[in-house]
Amino acid sequence: MSALIHVLNGPNLNLLGVREPEIYGHDTLADVEAACRAEATAGGCGLVFRQTNAEHQLIDWLHEARVGAAGVVINPAAFSYAGYPVLDALKLCDCPIIEVHISNLHRREAEWRSKSIMTQVVTGMVSGLGVHGYVLAVRHLLLLRAGKTL
Prior knowledge:
Layout: E1 4-9, H1 21-24, H2 29-42, E2 46-51, H3 55-65, E3 71-75, H4 79-82, H5 84-91, E4 97-101, E5 124-127, H6 132-145
Parallel strand pairs: 1-2, 1-3, 3-4, 4-5
C-alpha cells in the first residue's frame, strides 16, 4: 500500500463554490479533491480526502493519520480560532502538517480571523492562494517525502 496524504477540511467547506464566492471562489470541494488526488497520485501517494462540520469527527480523522501518514493537509476553517481539541490532536501527529486557508487570513474583515491557533504546531501554512493552496501543500508533502528540503 502506498503512503497516504490526508486532506482534512473543517466546517462549511462542503459549501465551497456556493458560499461567499467573492472570497472563496467558484471551485467546489470535489474540484479540490480531484486536483489533490491527481497531484498525490503523480507523486506516488494515496489520498484520503474528507470534510466535516463536526469537531469530534475531525479529531477522529487526525487520530487515524497520527502514525504512518505521509502528511496531513488541513483546512480547519472556523476551528482555526477556537478549536483547541483539534490543536491537541494535531500535536499527536508524527508527520508533517500543512495548514491551508483559501483566503488570506491577514486581510480578512475581522481581526479574530487573522490568528489561527493551529500555526503553533503545523509544519507550514498556505494562506490566500485560493484552492491552489491545497495542491501546493500536497506537492510540498511529496517533496518532503522524497527527502527534498527548502
